[in-house]
Model the fold of this input.
Amino acid sequence: MSAQVPKRSAVLLMGPTGSGKSDLAVRLAEQLPLEIISVDSALVYRGMDIGTAKPALSTRERIPHHLIDIRDPTAGYSVGEFLIDVQQAMLGVWSRGRQPLLVGGTMMYFHAMTEGIADLPEANLRVRAEIDARAAQAGWAAVHQELAAVDPVAAARIHSNDPQRIQRALEVHRITGETITKLQQARVSVFADVNVMEFALAPLERGEAGFVEEVRNLYERGDLSAEHPSMRAVGYRQVWRYLTGQCALNEAENQAIAATRQLAKRQLTWLRRRANARWFDSMRPEVAHAIFDALSEGGFA
Done:
């Protein structure tokens, strides 16, 4: 008999784009008491299915999925919003006596879940204008010295030629009365008191039949532009250039392939920083069995 799973556990299935995470997640959820929570900044958008390799609706109806199709492409979606949504989703999964399987390739989201994000105030235009005026009068080096007087730790890590970060650190102090250093140290992981198992997958390329038509449908809506965060997603950005006459289709396709590979490299760089992740090659046919065995050893089966 396997060990009893702690009341609150979570499984992280991470990997670069095209590594087969979604299919593997479904196979695991079919055999174990897991519900899938998407950790993907593009899957939150409705109507973006092919380019994001979104699980089919029939699959999502059969296996519970969360944080998919929760925003219109015209809307933004911040890391802070994701953290609120993912905590609510996990609480729901736990309340049903199951465990969350967090699947995706948006490494910034995984990092934020693990490390937490600081509870910093929103930008204050009046305060920023005051800091800018002071910099125009005395120079950013002098403003950096003012930061050093109230937050020497922040000043030590922020270069005197980095006006944006100097401004933000001073702005936070003037608004809250606390240093940005102290607020950043107060981060809380959403995995506090949660038993976590992490798995990382190696990449596996996939095709995207029908992708151009999908982007064309979004383009023809008339309420989207290349400046919307949803349309800056890898692949969508390049096809959008083709649809607006900025390049030929084959050029857009080649650019999309190159951008996808660059994204995968960045994702792998993030993944390598996760010391607790167990690595698996998604090209191996027995990868699902290997992860299932690891989960069984961890008490999930």
